[in-house]
Request: fold
Amino acid sequence: MTGPPKGGHYDLCVARGPACASALALTLIAAPLAACRPAPPPPVNEVVALVAPSLPIDPADAAWQRAPEYLAKLVPQDQVEPRLLTPSTPEVRVKALTSGGEIALRLEWADAAVNDTPGPGAFLDGCAIQIPRTLEAAPPDPQMGQAGRPVDIVFWRADWQASVDGRPDTLTALYPNAAINGYPFEARPLEPGSAAQREAATRYAPAQALGNRRVGPRPQPVEDMVAEGPGTIAAASAAPGGIRSRGKGARTATGWAVVIVRAVPAGLAPDARTAIAFAVWDGAAREAGARKMRTIWVPLAVRG
Reply:
């Protein structure tokens, strides 16, 4: 049996001792083994919605593990006033599933603080997805569409999630450290739940009394909106039977994970593509309205 070739690095290692020679031998063995390893998967350069029999609303559902993840880089909204000049959330991780009639999108991002209590001077955590109303080769402006070319937006907010999860819409729940002696509508002569008691309570909740859609108990933590450019956002008409989209958000070890389920964009099929954009608001960074972190348009495709 012939021995290993002499000369060069081998002779040098032998001269230095057995440990060096052993290291060289291991290197010679490991090199061809490394060449046999499977190549890493190609990078995901678009949001791919896999077809699934059902759509999970829970961000922690195991069904999300099979969906490819797209890493969307966020940039400050610095195109229109009020601008965001200081970057906050750097990225959002996106997964998607579709049942054919609906599409579910899971957004996850890092956020160290929970900002889910509304009030004067309060800033809230939130996120949104944006999809063009019509499939086009060239989508409208990513800054909330443009005149005659609307975009559909679904907006999730942390305080709405807290309300849906059961936090009462009361002063004691929202401000647990407040000292309140009492309110007239809590007087003993008023039977709890009676018409007289409810009428008295509305005097101290004018937003609810006026039907402000931003306050009060909510059936879902998301809201459907439509826009045709900056400053034009408005509530979308509800679909027959109630709210069109639904969602659920939950805290993770590092931030938020939110699932938004909405109707599949008209015309989107396995042989077609559309665009989608994302936005994130960090309450701790005093972000609200136009002050947000956002993406440009990202391709959105369906895969069976």
Summary: The longest strand covers residues 102-110. The chain has three domains: 1-37, 47-168+217-303, 170-216. The chain has a mean pLDDT of 86.
